[in-house]
């Protein structure tokens, strides 16, 4: 009898604690589409996908699918709430050996503090669920703050709402700490899309966005950045103050020789005054031991450098170049799997690319 009474009391206490926690987190939710969205090339019918499906019909099938991922898209909002929660719906339940669930399917919250974006906490996706709901941070002070919420890198978000305390303010800022009038457009491979950042804000396009205070458009297509002319035609329609072409890793050396010059020349002809930055492929760490891989990577970088030299020879202006030696480091610790970058590797490439962007802006 005593045990039954104790179990009853424990159960009652647990119930009351849960009810108290729920009362403390009494929240209202706002559709993220009503706030400020950054990181999108153009408007899309499905708000949280990168390229509208009508504009990908001539592109390879895999690119069409990857264009639906939300990599690089972020929401900016202001609130004085001590609690921030989020509800988001994913297109698929994923597993990726070289990425964290937070990176491929989660959220990443930053707060503007002393003029800089500071990491707050992630939205951790629950395994096996498409409909996600989570309190990201609680027990904050109630001063009005500006927040930045990055969306998943390798999944598609179909719905997103942000929750705050019922009595708190949640609104779109009148002035955001990102200059949306200045845009960097990055076309590239899985590395650009964000493999293998620990969380969405650690992908290097996101790092560049915070470092430069500019709107950065992530057009990374995992395994499928192959300089097809259909992609060049789309890229030329995207407004940008700078184009970064980090699309060498996915192409065979022969493809680079065949496609690089026509692709770059087309973009230059359509955007005659916009700087173009070419980025070499990362050095595959296992290529120091696997001779076939090592030789292929060397040829890839040799061939894109030849294209760069040819452009200079033909007097093309505002073309910049980032060699792999400028961002790989000498410690061989910048990748997860020998190819895809860790946060350390992303920090290095972001700094190298930012340097060229600043150089281009100084000459503008």
UniProtKB/TrEMBL annotation:
Domain (SGNH hydrolase-type esterase N-terminal): residue spans on this chain: 28-168
Gene3D superfamilies named among the record's database cross-references: Galactose-binding domain-like (2.60.120.260), SGNH hydrolase (3.40.50.1110)
Signal peptide extent: 1-23
Keywords tagged on the record: Signal
Organism: Pedobacter insulae
Protein name per UniProt: Lysophospholipase L1
Stored InterPro entries: Ester_Hydrolysis_Enzymes, GxDLY, SGNH_hydro, SGNH_hydro_sf
Lineage: Bacteria, Pseudomonadati, Bacteroidota, Sphingobacteriia, Sphingobacteriales
One Pfam family here: GxDLY
Domain of life: Bacteria
GO terms assigned for molecular function: hydrolase activity, acting on ester bonds
Residues covered by the SGNH hydrolase-type esterase domain: 182-357
């Amino acid at each position: 009898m005593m045990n039954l009474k104790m179990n009853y009391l424990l159960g009652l206490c647990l119930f009351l604690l849960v009810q108290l926690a729920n009362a403390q987190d009494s929240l209202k939710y706002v559709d993220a589409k009503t706030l400020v969205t950054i990181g999108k090339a153009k408007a899309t019918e499905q708000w949280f996908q990168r390229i509208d499906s009508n504009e990908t019909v001539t592109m390879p099938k895999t690119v069409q699918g990857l264009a639906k991922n939300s990599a690089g898209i972020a929401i900016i909002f202001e609130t004085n709430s001590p609690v921030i929660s989020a509800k988001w719906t994913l297109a698929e339940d994923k597993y990726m050996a070289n990425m964290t669930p937070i990176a491929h399917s989660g959220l990443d919250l930053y707060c503007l503090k002393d003029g800089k974006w500071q990491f707050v906490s992630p939205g951790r996706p629950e395994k096996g669920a498409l409909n996600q709901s989570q309190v990201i941070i609680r027990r904050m002070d109630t001063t009005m703050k500006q927040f930045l919420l990055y969306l998943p890198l390798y999944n598609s978000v179909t719905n997103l709402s942000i929750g705050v305390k019922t009595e708190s303010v949640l609104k779109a800022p009148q002035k955001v700490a990102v200059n949306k009038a200045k845009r960097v457009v990055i076309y590239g491979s899985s590395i650009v899309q964000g493999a293998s950042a620990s969380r969405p804000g650690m992908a290097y396009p996101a790092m560049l966005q915070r470092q430069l205070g500019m709107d950065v458009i992530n057009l990374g297509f995992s395994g499928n950045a192959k300089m097809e002319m259909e992609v060049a035609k789309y890229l030329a329609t995207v407004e940008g103050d700078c184009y970064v072409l980090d699309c060498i890793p996915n192409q065979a050396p022969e493809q680079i020789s065949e496609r690089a010059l026509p692709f770059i020349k087309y973009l230059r002809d359509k955007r005659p005054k916009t700087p173009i930055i070419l980025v070499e492929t990362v050095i595959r760490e296992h290529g120091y031991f696997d001779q076939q891989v090592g030789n292929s990577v060397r040829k890839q970088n040799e061939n894109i450098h030849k294209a760069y030299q040819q452009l200079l020879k033909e007097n093309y202006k505002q073309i910049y170049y980032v060699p792999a030696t400028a961002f790989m480091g000498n410690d061989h610790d910048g990748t997860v799997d020998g190819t895809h970058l860790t946060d350390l590797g992303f920090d290095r490439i972001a700094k190298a690319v930012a340097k060229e962007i600043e150089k281009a802006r100084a000459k503008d």
